[in-house]
Amino acid sequence: MRTFHCTVCEQMVFFENSLCLHCLSGLGFDPDRREVVTVVLEEPLDSGAVRRVGDDKLATDEPVQYRCTNDVIAKCNWLVPAPGKLCVSCALTQTRPDDGDDGALAEFADAEAAKRRLVFTLLELRLPIEGHRTKPDGGLAFDLLSPGKRPVQTGHADGVITLNLDEANDAHREQVRSQMGEPYRTLLGHFRHEVGHYYWPIVIEQTGLIDDYRKLFGDEREDYGKALERHYEEGPPVDWAKSHVSSYATMHPWEDWAETWAHYLHIVDTSQTAAAHELQTDLARPGDTTDLGFRMTLRNWIPFTYAMNAICRSMGIADLYPFVITKDVITKLVFVDRAVTSARFAAAKKAAAQVPAPPA
Prior knowledge:
Blueprint: E1 4-5, E2 12-13, E3 26-30, E4 35-41, E5 49-52, E6 65-67, E7 79-80, E8 93-95, H1 102-124, E9 141-145, E10 155-157, E11 160-164, H2 170-180, H3 187-203, H4 210-217, H5 224-234, H6 253-276, H7 291-314, H8 327-354
């Protein structure tokens, strides 16, 4: 994540802020520029219309923008080009709790906040984000559901990511984490894992990397149901940590991919945050176009995680980064970066091919 500042008072602000707490200027996130911008309200006030503040600290001549129509229900601070529209992140959600379900709506807002962070990273990596509304066959969508009277299973199927909103309840999530013996469990982690399943055909099958994938992760054509049953009956192999980022990654090649993908996003986002705050200044940029760039990030990542954990222990709290990255896991992470780069190049090439040639 980058660092952001209020244009009026230069105070540092967070990605989620809709208001500068120092000078009380309005803020909004512009997804096209991927920047938090300072805004002033335009009349009428109830329209959600805003105008970006310029370097002269006054409203500029730039076009009026509007707050996402989910600004209240999802606490969304993203900006859109027309009134009554959903931002690029909120538009991906196709199912949410009913308006009268206050408890579920609070959890829904937390889930949307985590999803906006996910979408920011996907935008930074320049991965294609096509929702079901624009691409019904193969687009990305989210069902954010409260279990109520029926169980809700978090997972992915045919481009639709389902999230059980109980995961937004800290006590529930910690209870499940403890019961499952997991070192890490967060809303953002769920989104990163499940979106890895969605992007698998885009960055692996469609880029011609399937054979290389199978050499590292195994054959995804293995029966998933049998693999799941075996995993919960027998547990992971004793030596799972040698070649997998988590015990769950041993269940099936698809889960190994999704767990490694999620970890790649952890590293990309956290490394960008560290560099933005000048904690480490020689980190490669997210989505650098060479293996060497990401390997540089990894070389800095390992000592940085030691520092993070040491600080946590100084505060008397659990390690922030409870993972061990082995040589085999690093090889998989570098492959994920290669797949992301290949998909980005393929998308750019496709977009260039669709641009009409200038008239002779």
